[in-house]
Amino acid sequence: MTTAMGVSASAERSTTAHVVWASALGTAIEWYDFLIYGTAAALVFNKLFFPSFDPFVGTLAAFSTYAVGFVARPIGGAIIGHYGDRLGRKTMLVATMIAMGLGTFLIGCLPTYDQIGVWAPILLIALRFVQGIGLGGEWSGAVVMVIEHAGNRRGFYGSLVQVGFPVGVAASTGIFALMTKLPEADFLSWGWRVPFLISILLVGVGFIVRLKLAETPHFKEIVERKEVLAQPALEVLRRDWRSFLLAIGITVSEVGLAYLLTVFTVVYATTKLGLPRQVILDAVVYAAIVEFATLPLAGWLSDIFGRKALYLAGGVFSVALAFPLFWFLDTKEPALITLALVVTMTLTHALLFGPKAAFMPELFRTQVRYSGASLGANVAAALSGGFSPLIAAALLAWAGSYWAVSVYIVALSVITILATLMAPETARDSLRS
After folding, report:
1. 0.70 exceeded by the pTM?
2. pLDDT tens across 33-43, in order?
């Protein structure tokens, strides 16, 4: 019996390890796909797709198309979450990989404004919408898949999926940093396309890995008990609306910070401060690399001290660092800029994003977990993530200084702190069925 139990435990660990690996790899590829658009919007889309505008207005227009992906995310979350709760987690994870990969690859093939006129930005917006649909169901499906396999270490195992975000940031920013070493004419002609085109190879790898995943035991259980709901997304709004609102509240600060730190800082440093692109791109890459360690650490600590403790710490640090971040950026010293981004991303985004993979799905019961996590995360992303670089750029233009952007960060952080205080502690409870 002891031997049998040992074999069973080993098989379970092996299954969990495979699920975590496949989910993290797929999530990293999908974040790469989604994030290269933000870097391109900050560096090149204003010139190639909106050339008739003033450079700053062109940047605002490029960020508006960037935000389209976030408008699409709740739609994708509702559709993919619905089928994820009805057909299974694995099926929809494979589907999101295809949607994201195809949309990203085709962006790399797009003609520019000079070649086809107004159709260029129209097609860019359409493909960005496809990207948003795909990512709308990607993250939530990946984390639900993992925590439904993870037993009592949901915070730690879930945070390993979150490492896909800094991998995507480092890869997307790093490859653009490499491409910007090209002569300007070559970069604007073909260099910017390379990050989008190579995505098709990465997606092929992720697709094969995800095909081998096993469905989660929690979903199998509700299928066997014939408890699969006909309209899980609507059920979230009818019966689980409080969890839905809390999910939005705890997420708005984290998702806003993610794109302010990785996208808006690039614009601020290059346009407002006049720094070389390489300085800020390198700083973003280094900050993302540090998160490889801090995200799992935050997830592990949330299993010990609870999800709320980590979230409250992240919210407080977000308020405390909202102004110092820009003080360091304004020094124009590469070492201080890198230090500022590393410290800020570690003490704000990592403390929030690490435990999120467990905290968000834990708020919902199994029958609506995919839909609830998808809708909560993606509505928050639409409200504060996609529009945060656009809002920050507009605030900077209005105020003429960073202080308005810092106040915006504080406001988002206060919302997250209040939502966390109202949320239940979920770390020590079994998943709701």
Report:
1. yes
2. 777 877 787 77
